[in-house]
Amino acid sequence: PGSHLILARTATIAGKNTRSTGRAGDYFAEAERAIAKAFELSGVDRVSMFSAKLDLDLARFDEQAIEESIAKITDSRLSPYHKSVLLAHAYEGTGRDEQALEMLKEAFKYQRSAKNLITQAAINRRLDRVQDEQTALREALKLDPTNEDLRFELARSVATSGSEQVDWQEVSSLLSAGVTGSWKNRFQYAILLYRQGGTAEKQQAAQILREMSREGNQASNDAKRILASLLRDQIRSKNSGEPSLREELSAEVRAIYEELTRGTAARAGDLYQYANFLLEQWNEDDRVAIEELRDRLNSSKSGSLFGLEVAVRYVEKSSGRDSVPDVIDSWVDD
Fold first, then answer.
1. How confident is the model at residue 181 (pLDDT cuts 50, 70, 90)?
2. Does pLDDT of 102 surpass 80?
3. Which end of the chain is more exposed for a tag (fewer CB within 10 A), N or C?
4. Sequence-separated (6 or more) residues with CB below 8 Å from residue 316
């Protein structure tokens, strides 16, 4: 039966991914035949066979077939644990979250796993049960304390719970924001701080990113990009403070983009963002820099469309809208 189930899984995935309705039907029919053959060859109830059939039914959105699979799973000789897992999958796949939760809790009695609790947390989040979500995530973390994605999910839940007072100390602890924390979690923590926190948290976020940008590792340039984005957001804000602060932030953004765009291997996205920033600020002294960035984008295969946008916005600022058609014609000719 194993080879038939592999064929069934492959055909089901192909049917889900194809854009052709006709081909999807053919793939699903092939999966159906393979699953039927697997059941025929097997003398016992196997969880893999019921799982493959249920995945096929869910992929086809075949409600009658799903209900038939639920009945067969319920009446099967599978273990109570496997029955509960499969039924939870069926109920969740058809939007019956309460029943899915019930089955997940039943399965957890037989086998404790972080994966089960993470699924419970996701369902509780959909049901807007924040406390239940966090309880499930905390229990999952006890079972899998080194799972970075799990730590982030709990931190995100705490930071976005809507509570009047966010426990940023817990968020920081979860994401190990200190020097021992992974670059991924430190990134995530900085973004959470900036998006969800107040003035003090935004300043802390910027400081974390500044530290990361100086470390010279795989995350340094990405830290610079995010820091520049956050600082630009702060500059645009009506609450950005005194003109002197805006000038200080602008100078820092310029310095970041100068570093990112130095050299011939600069990414088109960085060239574009720097030009975009200079156009937002619009200082006559920046004309030469904008023109250079525009030309570098136009000479790049991946940046030519960016170059056109920069050219159009630049000529609108410097010469007026009447000159835009000439810029577009020139770009097309090149």
1. low
2. yes
3. C
4. 323, 324
Residue type for 172, please? Answer: S
Number of H helices and number of E strands within the chain? 18, 0
Report residue 238 as tokens.
């009506």
CA 248, 254, 256, 257: dihedral to nearest 10 degrees?
160
Assessment of whether the complete model's pTM goes beyond 0.90: no
Q: At CB < 8 A and 24+ separation, what contacts does 208-215 make?
A: 208/177, 212/183, 212/186, 212/187, 213/256
Token pair 């309460």 is found at 98
The 10 Å Cβ neighbour count of residue 38 is 22
Q: What is the dihedral of CA 172, 175, 181, 184, to 10 degrees?
A: -130
Q: Which of 244, 245, 213 is nearest to 231 (CA)?
A: 245
pLDDT of residue 186: 78
Asked if residues 278 and 286 have their Cβ atoms less than 8 Å apart, the reply is: yes
Furthest CA-CA distance within the chain? 81
Dist CA 165 CA 234 (whole Å):
23
d(CA 182, CA 163): 27
Nearest one of 46, 67, 55 to 10, comparing CA atoms: 55
Token digits for 78? 């599978």
What's the one-letter identity of residue 110? Y
Secondary structure in 3-state letters for 249-277: HHHHHHHHHHHHCCCCCCCHHHHHHHHHH
Distance CA 86, CA 104 (A): 9
pLDDT per residue as tens digits for the range 156-171:
888 776 655 677 778 7
